[in-house]
Amino acid sequence: VQLVESGGGLVQPGGSLRLSCAASGFTFSRAWMSWVRQAPGKGLEWVSSIYSNGRPEYYADSVKGRFTISRDNAKNTAFLQMNSLKSEDTALYYCATTAPYELPTRIRGQGTQVTVSS
Questions:
Q1: Per-residue confidence at 40, pLDDT binned at 50, 70, 90?
Q2: Whole-number Å distance between alpha carbons of 35 and 89
Q3: 6-36 b/e with 16+ CB inside 10 Å = b?
Q4: What is the phi/psi pair of residue 106, to 5°?
Q5: What is the predicted pLDDT for the residue at 57?
């Protein structure tokens, strides 16, 4: 299993970013895909999950209404569109092949840093 996250950066509060997760080494079209994050000095936090065929989607209360998860099974890629970003969204974001609300036991990728600051 290989997962490569990208798309992070520095953004002002209220701004937007779109994260991507390029997957390989497993049957992507049959896997749950999730995003988790780790803020400085804190543990992993589950953010969102999407079923293999694109529905349903699940979101943590802290991001509901602001983040949208999606996937392109033809390109083995998952996405996280993040709008109305807040300072508390600052974290290292990882994708994972876990089901909703679960945290991965092993982080596969290097993550992508999202920093929300004015």
A1: very high
A2: 13
A3: ebbeebeeeeebebbbbbeeeebeebbbbbb
A4: -140, 130
A5: 96
